[in-house]
Amino acid sequence: MRTLLTTLSLILATLTLSGCGYNTIQTTDESVNASWGEVINQYQRRADLVPNLVNVVKGYASHEKEVLEAVTNARARVGSIQATPELVKDEKAFAKFQSAQGELSSALSRLLVVSENYPQLKADGSFRDLQAQLEGTENRVTVARNRYIAAVKEYNITVRTFPNNLTAMMFGYKTKPSFTVENEKAISTAPKVDFGK
């Protein structure tokens, strides 16, 4: 009789645990971590291109000191943030990381705009190669971010829906932050076009 009760208890425990969502939470959490790793790899690739790009531009446009310093400082801020898997669990740290990456993107955009004023720079083979690598990396960053956003969405849905949310609460799993648009309010407003009279 005791063996029968033990067997029934094990069967009941197995059926209960299979529907609790623990394995699904683990799977989606690992998916978030993997996609986060790819985001970091692509951002690192971009950061590695910056010194070479700045040096090439400096050779032709050395008096654009302010723009060059802005790029260098933005890269330094990005480098000062420890991009660990734990970063995706802390909304404030994640926002700081996202802000630093946005500053670097903005500084690089200004650098590329300034380069338009220097035909010799635009004709330089090293500059064109670095610019193409940067554009390719920006595309990779976008793809990696989109994959991360999808993974976080799936994970967040998993830990917020019943009965998985009970398991998530019991084991301390919380929703994770995702990338957002920095100026969401500004882009939701339609641009005003004035053709003059």
Question: How would you describe this structure to a colleague?
Answer:
With 197 residues, the chain is an all-alpha fold. The protein has one domain: LemA-like domain (de novo design (two linked rop proteins)). The protein has eight helices and no strands. 21% of the residues are buried. The C terminus is likely disordered.
Keywords:
single chain; 197 residues; mainly alpha; de novo design (two linked rop proteins); 77% helix; 0% strand; disordered C terminus
Gist?
The chain has 197 residues and is an all-alpha fold. The chain has helices at 2-18, 22-60, 65-80, 91-115, 119-123, 125-160, 164-171, 184-188.
What's the CATH class label? Mainly Alpha
Shape: elongated
- Assign the CATH superfamily: LemA-like domain
CATH architecture: Up-down Bundle
Report the end-to-end length measured between terminal Cα atoms: 95 Å
What is the number of domains?
1
Q: Any idea what the radius of gyration is? A: 24 Å
